[in-house]
Every structure is written in C-alpha cells, then in structure tokens.
Design a protein that fits this description.
Elements: H1 2-23, E1 26-39, E2 47-59, E3 64-79, E4 82-90, E5 93-98, E6 106-124, E7 127-128, E8 136-151, E9 154-165, E10 177-189
Antiparallel strand pairs: 1-2, 1-10, 2-3, 3-4, 3-5, 4-6, 5-6, 6-7, 6-8, 8-9, 9-10
C-alpha cells in the first residue's frame, strides 16, 4: 500500500514538473513553519514542532492549481509529565482555489486535500516508542493562505493549514493526530 501511494504521488509530481515547464505555470521552493499539534484524546495538551520541506504548485488555470509538498513534520502531545514526539514525512496533495487571477501580484487561496504520512520516529520522554505506532497515517487537510509576488517568477507563500487525522496513530486504541501548521516559503517559477 505504501509503495502504491508513493509511486502515485511521485508520478503526479513528475507529471506536474514536465507539464508545468511547458506552460510556465509550475513553481517549486523551500517551506518552513511551525506545527501546533495534539491528539483527539482527552486531557492532552499541544506540542510545538518543526515543519520544513519543499513545496511545488502547478496552476491549472487562473483560478485553480495543485500543490504537492514533501515535508518533515514534528508532531506530538503532552499529558501531565509525559511528552510524546512523533516525526513524519508528510506529502500533502492539495487542490487550490485562487481568489486572484494568474499573473496578479497578490493571490489569496483556499485549499483542501489529503496528506499521507510516514512515521520517521516516535519517542515518549526520550524513550523510543516507534514500534507502538502505525507506520503510516492519512490526514484530511484544509487551509488558507496567499502568494505574494516578490520579483518576476519568485513568490512568497504564507499558509495556515489544519491536518485532521483520519486513522489511528497507535497500533492499539483510536487516538488520531490533530495539527495546525503555520508556514512560509519562497517558490520559484520554472
């Protein structure tokens, strides 16, 4: 299943890259931000983590586009004296609805999609608990943001996203991730 998801996403990214180069509607660049994560379990508190990676967007037309990111995502929660850290490789695939026209210097956007996640490591108070967690997750993602042109073919991207876990993170129980992500990036048009 993991291989199928990975190959599908890789194929979509390669298609976007090749098609985007022909049309000059493709952009790619770094993204950096913060995660404010928790779970749906009672009595847990937020934990702040790093979000960093590469973002890419293909503008289908003036009003819509597809974004595919490759992100390191630090998530977790606190319960009393216990801090649980889970780090994922997440691949958000998002449909964007742009509120400004293609070519305008400021383009607000709304988006919705999903993000498969691949567990890199998991610790509870510096003790390895990776084997107690599922190796993959799937999140529903929604958000808003804007793209601001800095120069010809260079964009500043600012986004606020909500990740809503659809499957259990542990091998037992039904605890699911809940994450708010604030991030910025610079995208270069090619």
């Amino acid at each position: 299943m993991k291989k199928i998801i990975f190959l599908s996403l890789l194929s979509a990214l390669c298609y976007s890259l090749s098609f985007g180069q022909i049309e000059n509607r493709f952009s790619i660049g770094p993204r950096l931000g913060a995660n404010f994560s928790n779970t749906n379990a009672e009595g847990t508190k937020n934990l702040t983590g790093l979000a960093a990676g590469i973002t890419s967007t293909y503008s289908i037309n003036e009003r819509s586009g597809i974004t595919v990111d490759l992100l390191y995502s630090g998530e977790g929660h606190k319960t009393g004296n216990l801090e649980v850290h889970r780090n994922y490789l997440k691949i958000p695939v998002l449909y964007n609805s742009f509120l400004g026209r293609l070519g305008e210097s400021f383009r607000p956007k709304l988006y919705l999609g999903f993000a498969p996640g691949f567990l890199l490591n998991a610790e509870a108070n510096n003790t390895d608990i990776k084997n107690q967690n599922n190796s993959t997750t799937l999140d529903l993602v929604g958000g808003l943001g804007f793209n601001q042109r800095l120069a010809n073919r260079i964009w500043l991207n600012a986004d606020l996203r909500a990740f809503w876990g659809l499957n259990a993170i542990g091998k037992t129980g039904d605890t699911k991730n809940r994450t708010i992500q604030a991030s910025m990036g610079v995208a270069y048009g090619i």
